[in-house]
Here is the input.
Amino acid sequence: MISSVSQVKDTEKEESKRKILLSIEDLRVWFELKRFGFSHAGYVKAVDGVTFDVHDSETIAVVGESGCGKSSLMKTILGLYKPTEGKVVFDDKDLSELDTKGMHWYHSNVGYVQQDPYGALPPFMNVQKILEEPLIVGGIKDKEERIQRVHTAMDEVKLTPVDDFLQKYPHMLSGGQQQRVVIARAMIMGPKFLVADEPVSMLDASVRVEILKLLRGLQEMHNLSVIYITHDLSTVSYFSERIFVMYAGNLIEKAKVRQVLDNPLHPYTVALLTGTSEPDAKNAETLKELPPGEPPSLVNPPTGCRFHPRCSKAIQGLCEVKFPPEFEPEPGHFVSCWLYQ
Amino acid sequence: MAQNNKLLRIEDLVLHFNTSQGPVQAVDGVNFELDSNRAVVILGESGCGKSSLAKAILRLLPRNAGTYSGHIYLQGQDIMSFAEEEFRQNVRWGSISLVPQAAMNALNPVIRVGEQVAEPAIVHLGVDKTGAISMVKKMFQHVGVPEDFISRYPFELSGGMRQRVVIAMALVTSPVLIILDEPTSALDVLTQANIFNVLKRLKHELGISFILITHDIATSSELADDVAVMYAGQIVEVSDAYRFFDKPLHPYSQKLLASVPRLHSDKEPEFITGRPPSLINLPKGCRFADRCPARFEKCVEDPPVIEKEGRNVKCWLYS
Here is the structure.
């Protein structure tokens, strides 16, 4: 942990110098709902006005509950969904302006680590075929070179001895090994940028740490930028520099990891932290104070601040009327909440 | 007799499964006790046999079950000696109910949730339908589900609400013990915390005991009075929660606790090298020895269960 703390301090100094790799500008991803298959019945506003930058070799955690739009955000970044409004700019190029060749270039620069490793690996292909596939699609014709790169990637994710694993099928591997194959596949094209969607949520506690350390090792070795999507706040501090908290399609708090964990500002972030348990026998004695209700539907989200119906600190006449802009109560700590105006 | 004071006492419980490669020793000589109005957490990683333990207690055996032996004393009565029909009528969903893993899929999608929750009451308690529905309403109050959800179908409910409905279904026959098999592993943080609030309240208000089976060490502490750690089909440590979370005894428990990421500490989590042994080819001696940092010559022999200040640990270090 010491290493990543010092890393955070370094980045504070270097922040301004580092190049912006990915920039999301006022992104909106809406899905149209249809009645009887044709007449318009509204939109699911999965991502509704999200703006942020990711710098070179920066790791970011997007934290939110299921249904908050974090997966839609990720899929739009990967180019799988088209934005309804707004832009995704990678390396100064707007994704919507790239042609097929451009998208090939983009996909070779972005790796994707899926949530469920078993579901993400084709059951009828062995490890060698799985890892060769992106290289074939990427236009590497030389078989020798492909095999060489498969070996390097497997070494990097510590699937060794490599020859023992090459001919194995996914069902012959343990959960941790499957996730290593998924990571190797994401890394094989030598990406600059990695999107990891809950990479450890399906794994056992002891394996989870192993995979997180592996990802951090790869990040440091290749100076990768990483977006780490999760609902589990306890793992983010080992992996990320900044945390973005997402609620009902909006990013409601953006700050450095320690700022969010030690001094959460938005009432929803406070609730998330209260809800996250630490192993302590005292937990069994008290009930937790949690916001009532459940996250809102994204078809008709509440007016004003989307958290106001569940918020104990809501200001009458303000929170339910006007959407809170971003305030900066302490340097580098942004929060969309009227309490901090 | 000492056993009469205990709500549940399990002695040498064994459940093996027959496969073409040989018997899978999923539950292999498990002993533990549970007082009434307490909760014990069975902690273990996937494949350690903890779900099979739940099945063994409730005698929900798959077709390939092999050896099934031992004693389970529930309020002093050995329920292992019950005939199948007696067991079904009085124990399973009578005194002991189960909240199964993936409770979201435990509900029938084409039957209204109210009727599903009422069913155990109709079958086991012999109440009529109107009586059962009023019981369901009471149960829904206990678990925090709005009354009008009775006539909804499972797909109209969120994950958290479905989980509460399944808990209500386990409650409706007023059992003395509920076995929860990974009740919150597929749920969001706040939903998880809400479900644990419900369980704590039930324990307090209705005096029910719980066996919570989970791999999630951090959330298990929300309910635990006692902790039993399971490894490769055996219980390697039983301790009260306070001393366990403060200082576990067995090297495996220590490693497990060290692997939990903390919110407010800079201490690096550790992982356990190696993998648990296959339950078909178990090593001789201590089953954790291969991965244990404190291994010594004695570990080639099977360690006895050693009592240390009221805690039980299966490790040669404490002999």
The longest helix of chain A spans residues 205-222. The domain at 19-109+231-340 of chain A is CATH 3.40.50.300 (Rossmann fold). Residues 1-9 of chain A have pLDDT under 50 and may be disordered. The CA atoms of residues 245 and 251 of chain A lie 6 Å apart.
